[in-house]
Task: inverse folding
């Protein structure tokens, strides 16, 4: 599978602050998916990005795919305690298998 | 839809014992994935089936691990003999894969395996 680096590994924010996690690849990606895993839970699909420069929004979440399709980001505006969890990017390659980044563990302090 | 169903939810066993994890994918999905999650190694893809055929098992740690998918509605992951370093959460996921696209994965609740 394609390897990606996800940063930061951990992020603590005060409730109401913004949060961003980045996913970087040394190779061009076909597409990229984002998942959220709550503590003690399983990964849940959030979104898939396919096009170069694509930007998608889901309420307070904004997802971007870089112009060169080598990086992606997830930005959360005005975090809430319900945003707590680990966010994973998962680039998918031609083999049609998904390998996951190391994840960013978000803690939101009330 | 019941989602992806895994059993058991928790398994505690002793080193050397055989462990079998089970998965029922979502009806109609044609791809099935087994992942292992640990603090140290994160979420690792072990094996991937498409239309019940193993496509890529390069992530399977060693010969002690084996996976089967006898039909479209059932898969097993077996560890024999088990070792303490196999302790992890094992997730099964399924998706509907169409030609040229990667569809989203639906994960089961996982099996927490502890090998003493």
Result:
């Amino acid at each position: 599978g394609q390897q990606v680096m996800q940063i930061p590994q951990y992020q603590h924010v005060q409730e109401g602050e913004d949060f961003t996690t980045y996913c970087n690849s040394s190779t061009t990606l076909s597409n990229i998916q984002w998942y959220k895993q709550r503590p003690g839970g399983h990964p849940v699909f959030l979104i898939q990005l396919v096009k170069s420069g694509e930007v998608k929004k889901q309420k307070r979440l904004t997802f971007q795919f870089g112009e060169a399709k080598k990086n992606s980001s997830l930005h959360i505006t005005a975090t809430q305690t319900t945003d707590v969890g680990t966010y994973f990017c998962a680039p998918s390659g031609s083999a049609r298998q998904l390998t996951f980044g190391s994840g960013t563990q978000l803690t939101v302090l009330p | 839809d019941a989602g992806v169903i895994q059993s058991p939810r928790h398994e505690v066993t002793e080193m050397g014992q055989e462990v079998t994890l089970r998965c029922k994918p979502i009806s109609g999905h044609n791809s099935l994935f087994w992942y292992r999650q640990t603090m140290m190694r994160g979420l690792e893809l072990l094996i991937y089936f498409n239309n019940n055929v193993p496509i890529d098992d390069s992530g399977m740690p060693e010969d002690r691990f084996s996976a089967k998918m006898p039909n479209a509605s059932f898969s097993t992951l077996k560890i024999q003999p088990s070792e303490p370093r196999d302790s992890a959460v094992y997730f099964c996921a399924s998706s509907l894969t169409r030609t040229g696209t990667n569809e989203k994965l639906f994960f089961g609740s996982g099996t927490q395996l502890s090998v003493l």
Q: What stands out?
A: Chain A has a mean pLDDT of 92. The interface with chain B takes residues 1, 30-31, 33, 35, 41-45, 48, 88, 90, 92, 95-103 of chain A (CB under 8 Å). The longest strand of chain A covers residues 85-92.
